[in-house]
Structure formats: C-alpha cells, structure tokens
C-alpha cells in the first residue's frame, strides 16, 4: 500500500481535531518553559493546512510545500518555522512523486530532522523535538507496512519524551531554566507526541 495526497489530507484532518482538543494543554505546557502559544501555533497551522486541502495537487512534493506555506502564514513562532522547515525538506524529497512507499517514511522523517536541526542550530540530546524525530526515524527504519510505520513512530515519540524527561533542557528558551527543567517534559516533544499519535489514528 502506497501513500498518496488522499492519505495526507486524511492525516491533516486528524491533526486538526487533535490540536483543537489539545489546545489548552499545549499552551499550558509551553507556558511553563516558553511563550505559552504552542497550542495556538499548532491549531492555526493545522487548520490552515486543512483549508488548503481541497486544492492540494497530486504531486506530494508540491502538496507538502503548499502545506508548509499555509502553516508559515499563520505563525511566526520558532516551532511553526521549524515545522514548516521539516515539511519543506520532505517536499523536496518527494518532488514529482504522486505516491510514496511506507518504507520511505523513515528517510523522510530523517530529512525533516536534519533540515530542522540545521535551521535551529541544535544538537541531538538537547531535549527538543529533534530528539523525537530522531527516535521516530530510527523506529520506522526497515518497516514496510503503513500501519506499522505509523504505530512505531507514535510509540517512539512518546518513548523519547519519557526518556529525556529527567534531563535538563540545553537548547532554546527552556535552557534559561536550567536544572529546573529536570522532570519536566519539553513542550515541543509533547507536541510531536500528540502529532504522531494523531497521524497514527490514536486521537
């Protein structure tokens, strides 16, 4: 089973529902270590992608680029910029393609991770969304079934969030709080856990 723009639209629809539901929780988590607008960023960004859905082309590269552009127009936040950067990296890899095999998803996640890392100038292990994406890329490597890929990605995001909980944040605004971030979840990692769960159809 290959993945097409129809699957992308369906995933975006699930994201919109999840981000609206988790709006307050994400804002609250972000408020402890950041600006408190993460829920706003993701709710607006996913809604903008959904509104672009009916006009998305069959070319997955062009479709993802349109999603990145839609997301960017709604938010100037650093997380929104990173999300758009990741989408554009995947768009570049899929330019001219109308379908993608599930076995390629790991490489696409890795491409997004690398582009976001270059943009944010952060290292892995810093307790950020990069660590979530790294875990997801590794967990999905070698898998060929779409459901298995989505499940592995969701599980990996949640596991990465838990694994880094007891580390101090060393990147971004959260690093200002230093040792106080030990025992706290990074808002960006929380968001990616929710995103991966929604894409996997877990709500």
**Which range best describes the helical content: under 10%, 10-25%, 25-40%, 40-55%, 55-70% or over 70%?**
55-70%
Distance between the termini: 22 Å
The CATH architecture classification is Alpha Horseshoe
| CATH fold assignment | Serine Threonine Protein Phosphatase 5, Tetratricopeptide repeat
Write structural notes for this entry.
The protein has 203 residues and is mainly alpha-helical. The relative contact order is 0.15. The chain has helices at residues 5-21, 23-33, 38-52, 60-74, 78-93, 105-120, 129-140, 146-163, 187-199. Helices cover 66% and strands 0% of the residues. The radius of gyration is 16 Å and the shape is globular. It is built from nine helices and no strands. The two termini are 22 Å apart. The longest helix is centred in the C-terminal third of the chain and has 18 residues, at 146-163. The chain has one domain (5-199): DhaL domain (Serine Threonine Protein Phosphatase 5, Tetratricopeptide repeat).
List keywords for this structure.
mainly alpha; 203 residues
Provide a brief overview of the structure.
The chain has one domain (5-199): DhaL domain (Serine Threonine Protein Phosphatase 5, Tetratricopeptide repeat), CATH 1.25.40. Helix content is 66%, strand content 0%. The radius of gyration is 16 Å and the shape is globular.
